[in-house]
Structure formats: structure tokens, C-alpha cells
Amino acid sequence: MKRAAILISGGGSNMKALVADMGGDHPCRPCLVASNDPAAGGIAWAKAQGIASAVVDHRPFGRDRAGFETALRAQIDATAPDLILLAGFMRILTPDFIRAYEGRMLNIHPSLLPKYPGLHTHARALEAGDTEAGCTVHEVTADLDAGPILGQARVPVLAGDTEATLAARILVQEHRLYPAVLRRFAQGERGRLDLG
């Protein structure tokens, strides 16, 4: 059974979808939910589920990213996870942090990578006049949102879509895609999964 540490920055809807799927015959179990924000709603939810949780507030560290990441790694490593799952974790991680978990860290991104790495993905898709959008689960590498793609799910861009309506439709697919990719990855499958 693989142990998964899940990193969040907010309400943790993707974390909740992952945890909900990690029952029965799933090859993973959550061993930690950690956040960089003490106000993250997902932390209270994780505690209510009996999942170990930790908060390492990034703000007191200022520009000392290494100091923040050292403190975060201490919390993660104390639970001895096999996998690190970024689920709405809104901090860019340094190459040193990523190297520590190389080949064991996944992320979900709200675009069809390689299109639109970084922020404001829905606005960028709308501005470009794209006819479809979606989400991607990928391995985390030192290059932002550029690691090997493990799965994608697509949605049509509809006439009259706003950032909010497009984001909401994509989020439904994120909650399908991430658990499905994790299940395969934890079993050693590295092939790409594409959902409609």
C-alpha cells in the first residue's frame, strides 16, 4: 500500500476527490494533508476525516524559499510518504525540493498542457478562442508544468463561457482525472490516460 502526502493551499476540492477514491482496493492511502496557508479550508476537512495534517505558513519566511521548503519537507518526511500529490498547492517549488521527490510527485493543472502553463489558464484559453479546454495530470519536474503528461481530460468551450463557467466545468473533470491517474501511477502504470 502506497502512502500519499497531499499538498493544498485552499479548500482542497481535488484533495477531497483523491481521498474519497482512496478506499477499498485503491493502492494508496493518505498519510498527510499539508498546506502553506493556515486558513486553508481543506486542513479542517482533513482533520475531521482523521488524516494527519500540517501547516507551514510561507509568509514568515519572506523570500527565504529554502527555509520554507526545509520546514515543509520536515513535515512531509515525518510521515514517510511514497508519493507527493500537489492538489491546488499554489507555491512554485525549487529544483532542490523537486529533486528530493523526483519521480514520486504529481500535479494537476487546469489546462491541456503544454498549452497555458502557470496561472490564468481559463482566461488565456478564452482569449485565444480555443474550442476545447481541460486539465492535465503530470509528473513534477524542475520546469514549471512541463513534466511528463500522465493524463488529460477535455471539455468543450461553449459560446458565452466565462472564466468561472469554464473553470467549473473543468473542475468536474479534474475530480475524475486525478484519482484515475493516481490509481494507475501507484500500480506502476506510466501510460497516458485520456478522458473525454
From TrEMBL:
Domain of life: Bacteria
This enzyme's EC code(s): 2.1.2.2
List of residues binding N(1)-(5-phospho-beta-D-ribosyl)glycinamide: G12, S13, N14
Residues of the Formyl transferase N-terminal domain: 2-182
Keyword set, alphabetical order: Purine biosynthesis, Transferase
Active site annotation, chain numbering: H109 (proton donor)
Protein function: Catalyzes the transfer of a formyl group from 10-formyltetrahydrofolate to 5-phospho-ribosyl-glycinamide (GAR), producing 5-phospho-ribosyl-N-formylglycinamide (FGAR) and tetrahydrofolate.
This protein's name: Phosphoribosylglycinamide formyltransferase
Organism of provenance: Stagnihabitans tardus
